[in-house]
Specification:
The chain is of the alpha+beta class. The protein folds into 2 domains: 5-198, Rossmann fold (3-Layer(aba) Sandwich); 213-319, Methionyl-tRNA Fmet Formyltransferase, Chain A, domain 2 (Roll). Helices cover 26% and strands 29% of the residues. The chain is built from 8 helices and 16 strands. A 7-stranded mixed beta sheet has the order 5-2-1-6-7-8-9. Strands 10, 11, 12, 13, 14, 15 and 16 form a 7-stranded antiparallel beta sheet that branches. β3 (38-40) and β4 (45-47) form a beta hairpin. α1 (13-24) packs parallel to α2. The protein is elongated. The termini are far apart.
């Protein structure tokens, strides 16, 4: 098993744990493919991907192609004579790349496939109020997240867990699952299965499309549990947001922590209810959302008590 020649492909922090686990378990990583360095931040300083930083620290050969179909890049990949490619949090691969290794190209995905295929499986599972998710390894094919499944591991989502917390737990579970997958491939104990095998009769896979800015705006007409799940699913980034009208100015604000309160009422959705010192809740459809922490445009993140110290809540209202 340890003699397998592995090329690792990844960019985001989520992928670093798997690359580190491969090295700690003695696997022969012969190359790392990651995104090119990009300008980022207000100063537009050139930054490296988390995977590149870790690969440099580990003295691994690094490739950063702009174009994954570049014949020079593909030829360089072939010369590495890899038995298998491991892909975690990377771009969609062209067939000319994923068909190179003899064993195949294995992807780690942060959901229990076939559910939550797509770019935002962690966010979407929480937003939809799921109590379970997981990690899956599968062979890449010509579509997105549809290849034959190797292993899956289910993981509970805790009631007040946010996307950042779940990301960190899935990252560790996923790293371990990749090691188990390679072990199973080496001893022929894994039989790849069609994704349809994991669906009930008539069941359709739930999707996990990319999060767009408009997906982050809170609709106060929705019930408080749904709004609470949106906040959890978008925390700490990009953050669920709404708009505060104060002093004649409309300010965007993000909510990071909340507590839903389901109860019938006659208040208009979006109405702020507060004692001006200790608590603030916003009327929603069939209940209220108690705000625990938030960030107003141009300010740092703060608790509700800190927010109420600096804002005259009697002069504030929430607008869509």
């Amino acid at each position: 098993m340890k003699s397998l020649r592995i090329v690792f492909m990844g960019t985001a922090e989520f992928a670093v744990a798997t690359l580190g686990s491969l090295l700690m378990n003695g696997f022969n990583v012969v190359g790392v493919v990651t995104a090119p360095d990009r300008p980022s931040g207000r100063g537009r300083k050139i930054s490296k991907s988390p995977v590149k930083e870790f690969a440099e620290f580990s003295y691994l050969p690094i490739m950063q192609p702009e174009n994954l179909k570049d014949p020079v890049f593909i030829d360089s990949l072939k010369k590495l004579n890899a038995d298998v490619f491991i892909v975690v949090a990377f771009r969609m691969l062209p067939e000319a790349v994923w068909r190179i290794p003899a064993i195949g190209t294995i992807n780690l995905h942060a959901s229990l496939l076939p559910h939550y295929r797509g770019a935002a499986p962690i966010n979407r599972a929480i937003i939809n109020g799921e109590s379970m998710t997981g990690v899956t390894t599968f062979f890449i094919d010509d579509k997105i997240d549809t290849g034959n499944i190797l292993l899956r591991e289910g993981i509970q989502i805790f009631p007040f867990e946010n996307a950042g917390d779940l990301h960190d737990r899935l990252m560790k579970h996923g790293a371990r699952l990749v090691i188990r997958t390679l072990a199973g491939i080496a001893d022929n104990s894994i039989i790849p299965r069609l994704q349809t095998d994991f669906l009930k009769p008539g069941e359709m896979p739930k999707e996990a499309p990319k999060i767009f800015p408009e997906d982050c705006i809170i609709n106060w007409n929705r019930d408080p549990v749904s709004i609470h799940n949106l906040i959890r699913g978008l925390a700490p980034s990009p953050g669920a947001r709404s708009f505060l009208l104060t002093g004649g100015k409309k300010l965007s604000f993000k909510i990071f922590e909340s507590q839903p309160e389901s109860i019938e009422h006659n208040f208009k959705p979006g109405l702020i209810i507060s004692d001006g010192k200790h608590f603030m809740k916003i009327a929603a459809g069939k209940g209220f959302l108690n705000i625990v922490s938030l960030q107003v445009e141009g300010k740092n993140r703060m608790s509700t008590i800190e927010f109420l110290r600096g804002f005259n809540i009697a002069d504030c209202s929430v607008v869509s």
